[in-house]
Design a protein that fits this description.
Elements: H1 2-39, H2 44-55, H3 58-74
Domain GapR-like DNA-binding: 5-76
Keywords: Coiled coil
GO molecular function: DNA binding
Length: 78
């Protein structure tokens, strides 16, 4: 029984390691895309903000925009 549990644990650990390696590969690919965008003149900081905004639910994005405008007005930034 203990041997089966040890095998199961080893397989799970190996699976996590493979996924971590894939994650690193994807992360490197994303960096390459941002590098390509920067090379042709795009602002990667703004691109990352847009990616983050597109992940948000529309209601959450509207709420954030409203709060941002409220804070900007309170600080006299507009």
């Amino acid at each position: 029984m203990a041997e089966a549990a040890d095998d199961r644990l080893r397989l799970l650990i190996e699976r996590v390691e493979r996924l971590e390696e894939e994650k690193k590969g994807i992360s490197d690919d994303i960096k390459d895309v941002y590098g390509e965008a920067k090379a042709v003149g795009y602002d990667t900081k703004i691109m990352k903000t847009i990616v983050r905004l597109r992940k948000m639910k529309p209601d959450d994005r509207r709420e954030m925009d409203l709060l941002l405008e409220t804070y900007k007005t309170a600080l006299g930034l507009d």
